[in-house]
Amino acid sequence: MVGASALPTFADIEAAAKRIEGFAVETPLLESRKLNAIVGGRILLKPECLQRTGSFKFRGAWNAISKLKKSGAAKAIVAFSSGNHAQGVAAAAQIARLPAIIVMPSDAPAIKIANTRDYGAEVVTYDRVKESREDIAALIAKERHAAIVPPFDHPDVIAGQGTCGLELISKAKALGTDIDDIAVCCSGGGLTAGIALAAEALSPRTRVHTAEPEGFDDYARSLVSGKRERNAANAGSICDALLSPTPGELTFAINQPRLGPGYAVSDAEVREAIRFAFETVKLVVEPGGAVALAAVLTGKIPANNRTIGIVLSGGNIDAALMAEILRG
Amino acid sequence: MVGASALPTFADIEAAAKRIEGFAVETPLLESRKLNAIVGGRILLKPECLQRTGSFKFRGAWNAISKLKKSGAAKAIVAFSSGNHAQGVAAAAQIARLPAIIVMPSDAPAIKIANTRDYGAEVVTYDRVKESREDIAALIAKERHAAIVPPFDHPDVIAGQGTCGLELISKAKALGTDIDDIAVCCSGGGLTAGIALAAEALSPRTRVHTAEPEGFDDYARSLVSGKRERNAANAGSICDALLSPTPGELTFAINQPRLGPGYAVSDAEVREAIRFAFETVKLVVEPGGAVALAAVLTGKIPANNRTIGIVLSGGNIDAALMAEILRG
């Protein structure tokens, strides 16, 4: 069990921001007048699909791995991931010149497995239903004297993801804009927790919301019940990046007292949001990266006369799935 | 005939930059480490697909139309365009509260016609092979007391497009980066001319190059021969935005003494570039907006150890065509 003392703070996010400078992309804040007109509010998009490795995950991975490299604590890096964290860790380990072994589900999108190997990592696949990725990673860590960089439940990972919120809020402030709500695509809750910490420090009136796939809304339900709920299923959503079974322990400790209500969207609504991002914003967004946009486009998160930050958290979608979505 | 005195200057681009501020998007400068590694140089992408109306055309349209509005010289705006200029003019006229009549080829992509109507414009279609869009526009201008805003051969339009070059070079300088070459998707030459003027003023050693579809490389051939050459065909390329038959008179006067050699790419190379932008950069780029990227990806514009600015000039591609390209 990790004690409360291990929770990251805003100071850790500021330190992470210095660490990622020159390594991560400072993604722009984009605004679409068409989107604003459709929802009747002002939407500020934070396109993490434009981030190095195609998702926000590089932020946390580099923050954690650059610290491990500096301390000399690990001979290699192990991670388990449905794909985006895998790419983030592989790329960060490559920069740090540490070997990376990534444990990935055998049904992960081909592009994510291929890209992870392209970053020089060794990929070990497992059966998402029958095997435990945690057990496999622990065994590899022991055999290879490697440090595990978990996908969300680690202070350095959360602090790294928090830089996304720091940038979003700082850039909005530079435009003279106050943000009412931030909608975040949520799985284990690391990105959400980092953004919640940044918002608390920089813009306390801003409410941060989780967006999740229907059937995988463990975070929304946990926020209501006050304890970490589990999803009934562990597969079956188009959002391959958002299938964590339950909130992280650390992330839930951070998020529970800080978040507004969470929202869930259907696969059909996610497909609509991906198509909308293609047609109107000209960005490639993967299913798991489009749930927050879907939550706003459907009106589940009310945008009327509000200013809402939306994180488009990733863009690693297979060409075949995108073609299918575009054919309608 | 337009005299040399009508040629825009860098001061006109600076004035245009003030005029478009708060109306156009100051598009970011994006860099992909994967793209850099592939071509062996440093590539700075200027994604005008993220511009208002989905292409750079809004810049020139708003510069011209906001001036017309201020002078009270026109009761309406007429334009002829294969699509992107149409959307730029329609959106600019809507902001200026002037009626817009757009003359568009009947075979323009459905999304471009629909979007033009969405911006409140009246669309008049014509047969690209049998009819003259110039004649139709002139007749409408006379009947409706309207000013024609041409797609490229006008000082205010060229100056507006030049703001794209001004931003590209200024942002690169802010990064401490000197640009060796800028590759520009080229049809009538307005964007190229504006960027050439900006480069001459801000970074005289930077060479600006046209990129065109094979069979529609009138600009490249004109730069070689020293006179305005014509294309043999007026249809048949995937690049619907780049089918102008010959360089503009004004644009050629600006470009001829200022440009490096021009390059042509095949439809297959353009498809590859669109797919690359989807997979690696996570941007939606239309065929006509991808020719400059294609010219660099194919090695036709050598990138080895060079720093090259590439303008991704538009993203208005039909979903059906994108799906076909992604299916491969």
Order of strands, widest sheet of chain A: 1-9-6-7-8
Please work out how many helical segments of chain A DSSP would assign. 13
Overall residue-averaged pLDDT value of chain A: 94
Q: Biggest interface and which pair forms it?
A: A-B, 28 and 28 residues
Q: Architecture of the largest domain in chain A in CATH?
A: 3-Layer(aba) Sandwich
Gyration radius of chain A, in Å: 18 Å
Instruction: Tell me the major beta sheet of chain A.
Output: 5 strands, parallel
The arrangement of helices and strands of chain A along the chain is HHEHEHEHEHEHEHEHHEHHEH
Count of domains of chain A: 2
The rounded distance between the terminal residues' Cα atoms of chain A is: 47 Å
Helical residue percent of chain A?
A: 40-55%
What is the CATH T-level topology of the largest domain in chain A?
Rossmann fold
| Molecular shape of chain A | globular
Top-tier CATH class of the largest domain in chain A = Alpha Beta
Sheet-strand content of chain A, in percent, reads 5-15%
What's the β-strand tally of chain A? 9
- Give the helix/strand class of chain A: alpha/beta
Which spans of chain A have pLDDT < 50 for at least 5 consecutive residues? none
Oligomeric composition of the shown chains: homodimer
List descriptors.
homodimer, 328 residues, Rossmann fold, 5-stranded parallel sheet, 4-stranded parallel sheet
